[in-house]
């Protein structure tokens, strides 16, 4: 017997017991009112039926307790078996493979960033030195805003930044990057792409402005980690808020164009 069946049986027994008790009380009240038609046998018989109904209630209560205990035991046994099955089949190989891939990707990121930063440092440092040389020759060395190199050659730079004005292509620039910032921003875009992991994104406290800024500074990066319409539809309000703050809404390109 299931707990549901046992509860139904108990309710039925309680209803029958209440009806039997009401019948006894009705007969007793008739006697009190002077009704001589109620016989001792009839009253005794109804009281016996009421007592029997009460015992049936007790029996139903015991059956319910037994059914609840059996059901709990069955669920515990099933849960324990499920735990053992999971432990026997547990395979961390996919996790290890993913972590290994992340480590390899991070190493590749660090190498690429370091190589690019080294190029910027070399070229930009040379531009900075040449600008100082031109400024000294012009007698403007140390003057604020003095960039004779840019005035004459349309380029400027230092160890962290290079900018150039191209008459045909317009202005171009390159700034040294941080592998840590890029890695953290990438993590944030992943965590805020899944409603189940957003709390971890909040815990890491990676500012959305960092993601947006990197997306704007690194050509192609904003498009690379922009959410697809399907990913966007799966997010709730917090995900939409964070995604918009990060510049990852699939509609933001259209919004800017408008």
Descriptive report:
Strand 1 and strand 2 (161-166) form a beta hairpin. The model is unreliable at 254-258 (pLDDT under 50). The chain is rod-shaped. It is mainly α and 258 residues long. The chain folds into three domains: 3-89; 95-175, no CATH class; 179-257, no CATH class. It is built from eleven helices and three strands, in the order H-H-H-H-E-E-E-H-H-H-H-H-H-H. The protein is 72% helix and 6% strand.
Element order, helices and strands? Answer: HHHHEEEHHHHHHH
How large, in whole angstroms, is the Cα Rg?
40 Å
The largest β sheet comes out as: 3 strands, antiparallel
Principal-axis shape equals: rod-shaped
Relative strand content: 5-15%
| Helix/strand structural class | mainly alpha
Cross-sheet strand order for the largest sheet: 1-2-3
**What multimeric state do the chains show?**
single chain
Helix content: over 70%
**Could you give the distance between the termini?**
67 Å
Q: Which stretches of 5+ consecutive residues score pLDDT under 50?
A: 254-258
């Amino acid at each position: 017997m299931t707990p549901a069946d046992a509860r139904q049986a108990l309710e039925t027994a309680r209803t029958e017991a209440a009806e039997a008790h009401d019948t006894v009380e009705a007969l007793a009240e008739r006697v009190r009112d002077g009704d001589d038609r109620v016989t001792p046998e009839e009253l005794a018989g109804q009281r016996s039926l009421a007592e029997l109904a009460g015992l049936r209630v007790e029996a139903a209560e015991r059956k319910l307790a037994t059914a609840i205990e059996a059901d709990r035991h069955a669920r515990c046994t099933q849960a324990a078996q499920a735990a053992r099955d999971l432990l026997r089949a547990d395979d961390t190989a996919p996790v290890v493979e993913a972590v290994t891939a992340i480590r390899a990707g991070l190493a590749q990121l660090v190498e690429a960033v370091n190589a690019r930063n080294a190029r910027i440092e070399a070229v930009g440092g040379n531009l900075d030195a040449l600008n100082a040389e031109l400024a000294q020759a012009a007698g403007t060395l140390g003057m604020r805003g003095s960039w004779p190199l840019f005035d004459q050659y349309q380029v400027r730079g230092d160890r962290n930044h290079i900018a150039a004005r191209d008459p045909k292509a317009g202005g171009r620039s390159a700034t040294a990057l941080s592998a840590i910032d890029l890695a953290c921003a990438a993590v944030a875009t992943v965590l805020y792409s899944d409603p189940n992991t957003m709390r971890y994104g909040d815990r890491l406290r990676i500012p959305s402005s960092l993601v947006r800024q990197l997306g704007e500074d690194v050509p192609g990066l904003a498009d690379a980690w922009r959410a697809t319409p399907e990913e966007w539809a799966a997010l709730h309000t917090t995900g939409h808020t964070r995604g918009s703050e990060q510049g990852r809404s699939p509609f933001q390109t259209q919004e800017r164009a408008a």
